[in-house]
Amino acid sequence: MAIRNPNSWMWAEACELLEQAQRLQRQFFGLGRAVAAQPCWEPPVDIVSYETEVRITVALPGVRSDRVRVQIDWNRLLVSATRTAPLDERTIAVHRLEIPYGSFQRQIALPGGGYELLEQIFVDGCLLLRLAKR
Fold first, then answer.
1. pTM over 0.85
2. CA-to-CA distance for 91 and 42, rounded, in angstroms?
């Protein structure tokens, strides 16, 4: 009966975890290149109905308003944009990046019926939309 050396097993497991971390790091820092064409995060939303309209709040901290696209297709809302990471040629270290960066696309099913966009404004890092019920 062979007895496994627990140290070699722990070393192999540590190497495997390190390799997995390096793979994730390569994927994360590759967001600006090949992965940029694919949506990679979804912002949270609030949807509140009133008698004649629906109000939607989309949390978009750090997203420039001129980069946001809003489309309405009968009872479906599509919000998309890109949030760029605060990295450039002067960056010497990244200590922590927890806020999502990259492209996003959020499809929101609206309560039954058709809608028309009445208002689109940015306030305190949020996109506020007012939709009229048809």
1. no
2. 26
